[in-house]
């Protein structure tokens, strides 16, 4: 078997057997895949800190035809984001991102844009940017990449342009004007459209200068999460954990 290599994020890992770990990775050119790191739980093992969540690594592995689980022979740590995860809210938020990726992306389904999005978001958080704004940035792009971001500019029913307040119905897959608003709705603030326009033109911020107030960011996130949870058909465990903390 020829040894392969790929640049990847370690999304998470868990113990298996007495000495090994199963590692979930998101690769730049392979997508989501799993591997077994034999001996990774032994003291002084060759993997060191490279299997920590959100580590960017060059992973070396072997795979057999017809087998989903690859054998990881080594990892070179390219970039670590361990420091930002000392904050429990940030750590839980990143776990939420991992849940989204695992839920929406089938195995071996690569997405170079998502890979770059994840890297830019992590770099932004490491630079001290606001967690909630960066989270909204990730959620909005994630919806767009998966083709489930509704048109916030036009009413889903009458197709008229939204000029003031509007209401989201995740069940009806759209945003509605004041005349057409159905039951089971969430208010959408006008700044949502400005936010979606902003993220198209700008990378995640490297500081706390961004075009929305804290309250506006919270309102935007509420709508984006409503759509994500609806399509997942369940609430991510990490969101439940964040709710208990707040």
What is shown here, in short?
The chain has 246 residues and is of the alpha+beta class.
Shape-level CATH architecture of the largest domain:
Up-down Bundle
Order of helices and strands: EEEEEHHHEEEHHH
Shape: elongated
What proportion strand? 15-25%
Give the N-terminus to C-terminus distance in angstroms. Answer: 50 Å
Number of beta-strand segments: 8
User: Rounded to an integer, what's the Rg over CA atoms?
Assistant: 20 Å
What does the main sheet amount to?
5 strands, mixed, barrel
**How many structurally independent domains?**
2
Q: What's the multimeric state?
A: single chain
Structural class: alpha+beta
Instruction: Catalogue the unreliable spans.
Output: none
CATH fold topology of the largest domain: de novo design (two linked rop proteins)
Which CATH top level class of the largest domain fits? Mainly Alpha
Mean pLDDT: 91
The helical percent reads 25-40%
Number of helices: 6
- According to CATH, the homologous superfamily of the largest domain is Recombination protein O, C-terminal domain
| Strand arrangement across the biggest beta sheet | 1-2-3-5-4
Task: Walk me through what this model shows.
Helix 1 (88-104) packs antiparallel against helix 6, helix 2 runs antiparallel to helix 3 (131-145) and helix 3 (131-145) packs parallel to helix 5 (214-232). The protein has two domains: 4-79, Nucleic acid-binding proteins (OB fold (Dihydrolipoamide Acetyltransferase, E2P)), CATH 2.40.50; 87-245, de novo design (two linked rop proteins), CATH 1.20.1440. Strands 1-2-3-5-4 form a five-stranded mixed barrel. It has a three-stranded antiparallel sheet with strand order 7-6-8, covered by helices on one side. The longest helix has 19 residues, at 214-232. With 246 residues, it is of the alpha+beta class. The protein has helices spanning 88-104, 112-126, 131-145, 191-201, 214-232, 237-245; strands spanning 4-16, 20-27, 31-37, 56-62, 69-79, 166-169, 174-176, 186-188. The relative contact order is 0.12. Strand 1 and strand 2 form a beta hairpin. It is built from six helices and eight strands, in the order βββββαααβββααα.
